[in-house]
Each structure stands twice: as C-alpha cells, then as structure tokens.
Amino acid sequence: MKKVVLSLAVVAAMFVSCKEAAAEAETVVDSTATEVTETVEAVADSTAVVADSAAAKVEGAVDAAVEAVKEEVKK
What's the rounded Cα separation, in Å, for the pair 37 and 33? Predict the structure, then answer.
C-alpha cells in the first residue's frame, strides 16, 4: 500500500513539475515573440528612413541634372 501511495505522490509531483515547465515555456515564447516583433518594427522604421533619404538624394540629383540641361540649352 505504501508503494502505491508513494507512486501516486511521484506521479502528482511530475504533473505539477510539467505544468510549471509548460507555463515557463509559454512565458519565454511570449517574450521572444514580443522581442522579435519589436526588432522587426525597428528594422522596418530604419529601412523606411534609408529609403526616404535615398529618394531625397535621387530627387536632388534629378533636379540638379534638369538645371544643368536647362543651362546647356540656354547656351
């Protein structure tokens, strides 16, 4: 009878341990997902800034080229 009670106690302890481990794993997954989302948003923001900067440089170069062509045409 003692063996049965001890076996049930061990099984119960294993279930409790597994539930705690599952809760910890879920917390880790949630925090990792949050970190990944924040990183993706930061990269997207920095990429948008770089794209805007590049577009501004291209527009400036185009404007300068147009002005140069206009000056050549006037001569």
Answer: 6
Residue type present at position 8: L
Q: CA-to-CA distance for 45 and 40, rounded, in angstroms?
A: 9
Q: Which amino acid is at 15?
A: F
Per-residue pLDDT of the chain (75 residues; tens, 9 = 90+): 778 778 888 888 877 777 777 667 677 767 777 777 777 777 777 777 777 777 777 777 777 777 877 777 776
Predicted TM-score (pTM) of the model is 0.42
Alpha carbon separation from 70 to 55, 64, 65, 73 (Å, rounded) = 22, 10, 9, 5
Q: What is the DSSP letter of 1?
A: -
